[in-house]
Each structure stands twice: as C-alpha cells, then as structure tokens.
Amino acid sequence: MRYRPAFIAAVALGAFALIGGTGLTVSSGWLITMASQHPPVLVLSVAIVMVRFFGIFRSVARYGERVISHQAIFQTLTSMRESLFNSIAGKLQTLNIAKAGKTIVDDVERVQELALRTTLPGASAFISGIFTIAVAAWISPSLLLWVIPAVLLFAIVAPFAVRKYLDPLSREIEDEESALTEISAHSAYGALEAEVFGYLDIYKDEISQKSREIYRLERRFLLRSSLIQCLVILSLGLLLVASGLYFSGESDLIAVKVAMAIFLMLVGFEGYTTWFPNLYLSGKNIRARENLIALSNSVPETPHRQKLSEVSSISVEKLSPFWEERFLIPISFEIQRGETLLLTGPSGVGKSTIAAALFGLCTYGGSISINGVEVRNLDAIDKLITGTLQNGYIFNTSIRENLLISNTDASDEELNRILGLLELNYLHLDEVIGEFGRKISGGEAKRLSIARALLSKSPFVLFDEPLEHLDDLQAARIESAINDECKGRGVIVISHAQWRQYSKKVEVERE
Q1: Sheet-wide strand order for 490-494
Q2: Model confidence over 284-293: pLDDT tens digits?
Q3: DSSP string, 296-315
C-alpha cells in the first residue's frame, strides 16, 4: 500500500516519543546522580527543566503519533476498500465470492495491522536506535560495545528468526483460515438443503477437520514464538546485567556518566521491545497484503466508458456469452423501444447467461450494442437496461427499501400501485422481509424483483422467467399487467413457453 505523508510524519513522531523517553530517563539519572553531589542550584534547575521538557515532549509526540497515524491509515484503507469493491462489483460471478469477501473485509484489516503494528513502530524504533547509539558514543565509546550488540539483536537477529521460523507458519495459518472461510460460507449457504437431505454432518466434519488443522498449526506457532521471545529477552537481559557490572566497576568514568550509561541500557531499546512482539503476526499480515494485491490484479482496470442520453435500440450480432467455456450457438437479434422480444429454449440451455451478458456481467463473444455502442464500452448500463435475474436477491430489509433500490424518488403511492399490479398489495411497505427473503414465497420474491424493474426508468427491461411459480390464470394476469406498464419501453422476456404476447421470438440452442 502507498503511505500518505501523514503516515511518514507519524513515524517521525513515534521516533520522537521514543527519543523523549530515552532523554527523560537518562536526564533523570543525571539529575539524581548530580543531586547527590550537592552541585549549585542552577545546575539542578537546568537538569529539572530538561527532565520536564523530555517528559512533556514524549507525551505530546506520542499523542500526535497516535492521532495522525490512525487517521492516515484509516483514510488509506477506506479508499482501498472502496476502490477494491468498486473494481470487482459486477464481476463477482467470475470470482470466489467467499475469498473475495474475506479479502475485502478481513485482509484489509490485516493490512491496517501491518502498517500500524509493524511498519510504523519498526521504523520509529530504527530511528530511535540510531539516537541511542549516538548518545552512547557521547557518554562513553566503550558503551558502544554493549549498545550496538543490543541494537543488532533487535534490528537484525530477532527479525531474521521471526522471518525464518514464524512467517512460514503464519502464512500457512492464514491460508488455512481462508480455506475455512470458504467452507463455512459454502456450508452456510446450503445448510437448509443439507439438513433436509441429511448430509449436514459432512459439512460439520469438514469444518471440524479444518479447525483442528488450524489449532495444530497455532500450537506450533505459539511454541516457536515463545522460544524466540525467551531467547531474545534472555540475551537482552544478559547484555544489561553485563553492562551494569562493567560500568559499576569502571573507575575511569565519573559517577554521573556511569548512571547515564546504565539508564541508557535500560530504556534505549524500548521501541524495539514494544515492536518485536508485533513481528510474530507479520507473516499473516503480509499474506493478507499478497491476497489483496492478487485480488486487485485479477480484476482488469475499467476503461473509459461512454454515456448515452438517448436510447432507441439494442442490437445483438453472433452473441455467444460464457463464464469459462463457450457453449451456445451464437444468436442475433435487434429490438426497438416499444417491442417485446421472447428468448426461449429448454431449461439449462443458457438463457440466463444471455441475460447476464446483456446486463454487462459476463464475458461474451460477438457484439451487444446499444444505439451502436458496444455494451462493454458503456457507462451506467443500469440506466439503459435493467430487469430481473433468475435468482434475484431480496435484501434483509423492508419492502419499501427493497423497491426503492431501483427508483429512490418513488413515492409510497407509486410503490403500492406497482405492488397492486403484481397482486402483492397485501404486503406492507414497512414489513421486513428477512434474510434471503425467507418470509415470503418464491413467487412473491420473483414478483418483488419484477416490481423493482417496473419502477426503474430505464428504456429497456429484461425479465428472466417472470411467470415462474405462478398458476396459469395468475400468470396471464401478471403478463398483461407487465405489458401495460412497459408500453413504450423495449421488453426482453426469457421464458420456457408461458409468455404469449411478443413481437419477436428467438430460440436459444447449445452447440
């Protein structure tokens, strides 16, 4: 991800906070030691001012780092999430929805963690480490014999151990969690049918097996991270003890410098000690960033598209839509506003794939043009052609909000009128349908989708099996209502055989 200038400023403030902490402790050690020697009051006054300065400086820098870094990261990730969703919207049919959903939500959060918990404190610790070395050289060149190994321990040795022994496990855990997400999403989607037909236990076994594998990997991860943590802390402790003993017996240094050296060893590596544990999960976060990049690269950039103000016809030439492999005999037709085109053919032949192509949702060979402009080169296709899909989605909200999706300006009177045309006037606009529309029947859900299309202002509408789930008499009434409401618009109907009134008819066949 690209970091904003504010993030760079946050790194600097984080480093200043650590430097302020080091300065506070070292100057305090200097003050305590000098006070024991009863120096002039002016000397103590200067030392007290320095202690207060570093204390305030540290607090202000830390507060500024927190505010600026979080704002910068949240703004960056909000833009990233919006851009990513906009790029894949309408192309979800060609993506793994569960994996894409995890990437948009979970992986983006992990990228945030990588920036806030690893990159930022690591950079700040590096800068403060340079300051610690400089202060050590000023106090006594011999102090470098202890400070430099401690800095190398945290800056090179510890990260190397994490990368070598923890990152592979972290990445494996992340991949297994992604697989568990896919299994869970798939099983949850088909849970009702699985319960009915008695194979829900298969899903449960798959989830249990994957969960046990994640548990096994996490135990290994915990064991390795604990071992690395113990070795690093033990090494630092030995350096601190050895340096303390060394300077306590150093007769060439004045007492105040001995105190400053010991205090520097105690606080000079604060940035590294707080940053180091965050490295443990960096492998998972880096894998999340790789998933994010992979998803972004899998979706081609949207080219500049043309807008149409007036629309009179849709022309299809040798159209052969497909998801992965071609399977339809190419078809051709043209429809003008005011006409009704019937697309018919046996179940499973691919009629709904043609609908997806007309909506600009899938790849196709041949040509689909609206007023002579190719669909793939048009912007805001929903303003030109809209309609229903075979499995239209009903949102877990009220009837009103489900209908207003297609026309936010529609009044309650208009919504009730359309519901009445489709014999749904017994539904209340404030009634919440429930997840996947489970409170209503399949026929009611289909007609709600039709109502959304009728409320839209697009000049062309497409209905995929609009009379499904209806008896013959009700189907005839609904067909008549749709025809009356769509006068002056181009209508494309996908149906097996029920639709009776049409201007043109095209048979769809497989190769």
Answers
A1: 385-387, 460-464, 490-494, 340-344, 504-507
A2: 788 777 777 7
A3: HHHSPPPPP-B--S---EEE
Edge-to-edge strand ranges of the sheet holding 373-374? 331-336, 313-322, 363-370, 373-374
Cα-Cα-Cα-Cα torsion 31, 34, 37, 40, nearest 10 degrees, comes to -90
Residue 23 tokens read as 């300065």
pLDDT of residue 305: 67
**CA 493/CA 311 separation, integer angstroms:** 19
Parallel, antiparallel or unpaired: strands 490-494 and 460-464: parallel
Task: Find the angle CA(372)-CA(376)-CA(379) to the nearest 5 degrees.
Answer: 85
Which residue type sits at 118? T
Partner residues linked to 63 by β-bridges? none
Pairing of strands 313-322, 385-387: unpaired
Q: Which residue has the tokens 């000079």?
A: 268
Mean pLDDT of the chain: 82
Q: At what angle do helices 5-35 and 255-267 cross, to 10 degrees?
A: 150
Can you give 4-50 as a three-state secondary structure string?
CHHHHHHHHHHHHHHHHHHHHHHHHHHHHHHHCCCCCHHHHHHHHHH
